[in-house]
Amino acid sequence: MAPTRAAGLVIFRNVNQVVQYLMLQTSYGEHHWTPPKGHVDPGESDWVTALRETKEEAGL
After folding, report:
1. Where do the Nudix hydrolase domain residues begin and end (predicted)?
2. Is the pLDDT of residue 6 over 80?
């Protein structure tokens, strides 16, 4: 089986000298968190995948 490619973004902001990261709770566990990411569709670039998944999963 060939490896599956995935792409995502690490989104952060600095609020009063404290860095905050955007993490999404996974569907498979209460204590599992991940940045927005997803599988790369055929013919799609990693960058386009990362942007699409961020919009789909986080609404950004």
Report:
1. 2-60
2. yes
Q: Is 26 left (phi over 0), alpha (psi -120 to 50) or beta?
A: beta
How many angstroms separate the CA atoms of 47 and 54, rounded? Answer: 11
Superfamily of domain 6-58: Nucleoside Triphosphate Pyrophosphohydrolase (3.90.79.10)
**pLDDT tens, position by position, 12-60:** 999 999 999 999 998 887 889 999 999 999 999 999 999 999 999 999 8
What is the DSSP annotation of 6-56?
Answer: EEE---EEEETTEEEE--EE-TT-TT-EE-SEEEPPTT--HHHHHHHHHHH
Provide the pairing of β-strand 33-34 with 12-15.
Answer: unpaired
